[in-house]
Amino acid sequence: MAGAMLAQTADEDFKIYSEHPRLLLKAQRLKLMHRERERRSQRWQQLEALVMGKVQMPEPGFASALVYQVNGEDAVGRQAIAWALAPAATDLRQLALVYDWCQSLLKEPEAKALRAKLQKGIEQTAKAQDIATMRSRVFAAVAVEDEATLKHAVTEWWRKQLAPALKTGSRTLARAEVYPMFEILHAIRDTLNIEMREDAARYFQELPAYLLLSYYPAVYPAAENDYRVPVYSGSGEPDLKAAAFSRAAELSIVAFDPNAVESQFLQGWLIHDKFLMRGVQGICYEFLWANPYQPGLSYFHMPLKFHDTKSGRLFVRSSWDDDATWLGYFDGKVQLFDDGRIQPLSLQTQKDPTIVGDNAILLGNNKMKIDLDPDSPASYFIIGLKPHQKYLIEADDEELTEDETDAGGILALNFKRKDKMSVRITAPAPRGRSPL
Q: Global pTM?
């Protein structure tokens, strides 16, 4: 494995040969966006109306440069350049996009000034390791053809730090990190032809299922469009900016690998028009990534549970309907969503398991007994145990077996028998002592 990695690194070329635009706008994507403009799609009309009407956008450089790439009007491209040249413009990602997407409009002094801004941004953020900042640095490096920064991002930051952690489960992507991570994946593959996902293939294969199962079932209606609300900690109203970027992430995942079965389920989740982002926060991402011509698979055929043993996360729901019951266990916390809202849940005070669909969830201890009836759920998830702890499982009329909890202290049990029986679960006693 190490030899293969060394060979892979030796064969890679971090020199950029493509012309502008390089970032995110492959020829096929540009063709799709121009087609959307020609047919006056709802996405294009909304974006054009906001930008050409000079509505204040959260990311003005990104928005104006995107519209310029589609309609070719110099005035809107100059609008993006004016933003980027202003002293207050310090967002490295947007600066890179304006430099890359409006290259044909830049006068020599403007190009020189913007290039200097990008190079300064790369230097100032050199020590930052968070995904969002790394994304901005990669964008800037692609724009100015900084081979050293791109090589460091792939071979040091990604392959030696983040990818191994994702692969082992010691690190997962927070929901807010998924979108910037996929912008990195797009930028590196589009310009260097390097598929970074290969270094943590299973993680990225399972990511769409995690994203879908970690939404609350109920739809949240907002003024501009409806939202799916991703799981969050704490109280209060949902963060609709987070919800918008969650959808943007999923759109970018489908665009990255549209033929994967997981992406097709994700596309089936995304294509409903009532979730089309029409507000200033989401419309740029909606127009950039959405492909309304691509069919999707119905997510109603997906499993109703996601159990990630490497990170110790569990999400289950009773159905894919909007009024479904949902339960999530993550970071040592448990949430229940029922009757359209997050319900208080304390498993410590509950004598019976919490049933969600064909799954039973209960708080465990080092010595417990479960009585099963013929109509009991097939899957039991015992949570709150010690991570990576072995337990003895003894079912009536069956041999004693041993199983181990996952990284989050979840013990997953599946019962195929449909008769009445009892199951005893005990932690092995210290050597020399009986567990009973």
A: 0.93
